[in-house]
Amino acid sequence: MSEFKSGFVTIIGRTNVGKSTLINLLVGEKVAAIANKVQTTRTAIKGIVNRENSQIIFIDTPGIHKPKHKLNETMIETSFSSIKESDLTLFLIEATSKEVGKGDMRILEKLKETNQKTILIINKIELVKKEALLQLIEEYSKQYQFEAVIPISALKPQYKETILDEIEKHLKPGPAYYDIEEYTDQTVRQLAEETIREKALTLLQDEVPHGIYVEIQKMNLRKNKQNQDIYDIEATIYCIKESHKGIIIGKNGEMLKRIGKLARIEIEENFGLKVNLKTWVKVKENWLDNPSIVNKFKLK
Question: Which fold does the domain 188-297 belong to in CATH?
Answer without folding.
Answer: GMP Synthetase; Chain A, domain 3 (3.30.300)
